[in-house]
Amino acid sequence: MVINPGDLTSEQIILIQSDAHFLKNVSTEAVKSITAGGFRVIMITTNQPSMILLKMYSRANINTGLVFFIDAITNYALGKDEGDSEDVIFISNPGDLTEIGIALTKALKKFENEDVCIVLDSISTMLIYVSSARISKFIHYLTNKIRLSDIHGVLFAAKNGIDPGFMIQLTTFVDEIREE
């Protein structure tokens, strides 16, 4: 099991690394475990569109009512602006880290009375759109926001998909690194 809900203590942040071809399955299993523990998941996705993830989660018997998406890929891939919905905030493109941060603040306000786990899928995909220096600043912001909000966080990255210097920075931001 990737994540046992008992592993998620307040302010704890876990980085999960997986082989690239298993990352989708590992992420889905983690979301399944987290939601089964009663947590609200705020999924920041730069890897898969929220529509695709919803279908995958439904097939995996995940309670999708506990998943809220900050979808940074759909508008970019479609070349048009999808309107936000009750369960999704769409970001214009995966490289707009400011827009992602604003959406995260809105989502946290919406679920401020719930036990929340922020899931970022994936750091490796973000590297396609943004330099590692900018992502490092964003991850530092994100991890501090998680800690200060007294919530939980799970970050995903492809194993061997991050250069060693950047990986050293990431290790200083998280509490635990797991390899799946």
Silhouette: globular
Class based on secondary structure composition and strand pairing: alpha/beta
Major sheet size, sense and barrel closure? 7 strands, parallel
Between the first and last Cα atoms, what is the distance in angstroms? 9 Å
Pick out the low-confidence regions.
none
Q: Helix content range of the residues, please?
A: 40-55%
By DSSP, the count of extended strands is: 7
Lateral strand order in the biggest sheet: 4-3-2-5-6-1-7
Helix and strand pattern: EHEHEHEHEHHEHE
Q: Tell me the strand percentage band.
A: 15-25%
Q: From the structure provided, what is the oligomeric state, counting identical versus distinct chains?
A: single chain
**Average pLDDT:** 92
- How many helices? The count is 7
CA-atom Rg in angstroms: 15 Å
Descriptive report:
This protein has 180 residues and is an alpha/beta fold. Helix content is 43%, strand content 21%. It is built from seven helices and seven strands. The protein has helices spanning 23-36, 50-59, 74-78, 97-110, 123-129, 132-148, 164-173, and strands spanning 13-18, 40-45, 67-71, 88-90, 116-121, 152-158, 176-179. Strand 3, helix 3 (74-78) and strand 4 (88-90) form a beta-alpha-beta unit. Helix 6 runs parallel beside helix 7 (164-173). The radius of gyration is 15 Å and the shape is globular. The model has no long low-confidence stretch (mean pLDDT 92).
